Amino acid sequence: MTSRTKTTFAPPVMEARRWLDGVTFPDNQPLINVSQAAPVDPPPAPLRAAMAAALDLPETHLYGPVLGLPALRHELAAQWSAHYHGIATPDQIAITSGCNQAFAATIASICAEGDEVILPTPWYFNHKMWLDMSGVTAVPLPTGADLIPNPTAARALITPKTRAIALVTPNNPGGVEYPAETLSAFFDLARETGIKLIVDETYRDFDSRPSPPHSLLSDVTWGNTLIQLYSFSKAYRLTGHRVGAIIANQDLLSEIEKFLDTVAICPSQLGQRAALWGLQNLRDWLAGERAEILDRRAAIEDHMPLIAANGWRLMGCGAYFAYLEHPFAESSATLAPKLVQEIGVLALPGTMFTPATDPSGARQFRVAFANVDRAGIEALFTRLASLDWPLATPVSAA
């Protein structure tokens, strides 16, 4: 009998880190690590001070409510409602141990073994891994050259076993921001067919648009269809404290509570207090973080001409990610370790984000640029431009 964990692949980021074993990087070409979308800097000093003060509270060290601290649920509900010009109430909020757990809890609460969930490709690999381990079939929805999923194509994939469509916007790995009309069309499709629409908005705080990215929460019946997921990790640099959230109707959260109680009992008390303090006090600081990320996004676009002349193509760019199509003959799975060895760049191949049967991943790389400043981005593109590997045969000449 195959165990649950053996139904899926090894964690991609951990696999990529092993490519660094035994490799040394000269002083004039240090490693450029664009493999993982996690801020490496600690939380800002005022937040760290608030966290230190929270350590003196006895309740910080005790179990708390399974669905999270009431104050955090109230604050997030108020800010979510204001941001989306809709209504989310505290009893429609659950706090989780990170956004990956939010997805896992949601799937456990809406799916049984043998069910199906539609995932646009390239997909977020941890979503695929959890579906595998849950005995739920991930149905790939190819997105094409613009990386935007098509609701009409999704409709053709819906079967009696389909329980949800899961979208990530701004997208991981593609970086693209899904248009509001795309999300509305998927919401209408999910409502019409009686399935759930899961919208993972881990990178919402770095969306380039000044207005709300969608209006789904303004529909008074949103709770029958929509499930939103969120992470505090990127906004406040709390990756190690694991704090995420689910926004869904109260009946579903009653089911999700069973999962959360069994897996973790409650989210980290310290992490939740940090998230609450951040929501209440770091609006201006977060605006500065967003501006910096948007500038790094612009730097990616500014430096694309360095490699576009060699046949590279920028497929998507936004939030923490750029998604690139390379011009070389070999698969990105083969080339990714060579990037480390030859030019000191650690990036993830597109094969980690696509089904084994999809050849497009072999032509793609994900670049996570949140920890690389403008100078580092210029160095990255200069190194990529230096590659002289054999090129793929043009389709027209095949």
Overall CATH architecture of the largest domain: 3-Layer(aba) Sandwich
Number of strands: 13
SSE run: HEHHEHEHEHEHEEHEHHHHEEHEEEH
Number of helices: 14
In round numbers, the mean pLDDT is 96
Low-pLDDT runs of 5+ residues are none
Task: Give the C-alpha Rg.
Answer: 21 Å
- The separation of the N and C termini measures 45 Å
Strand content: 15-25%
- CATH topology (fold) name of the largest domain: Aspartate Aminotransferase, domain 2
How many strands, which pairing sense, and closed or not: the largest β-sheet? Answer: 7 strands, mixed
Classify the helix fraction into a percent range. 25-40%
Query: What number of structural domains do the residues give?
Result: 2
CATH superfamily of the largest domain: Type I PLP-dependent aspartate aminotransferase-like (Major domain)
CATH first level of the largest domain: Alpha Beta
Fill in the keyword field for this structure.
398 residues, alpha/beta, Aspartate Aminotransferase, domain 1, Aspartate Aminotransferase, domain 2, 2 domains, seven-stranded mixed sheet, 13 strands, 38% helix, 15% strand
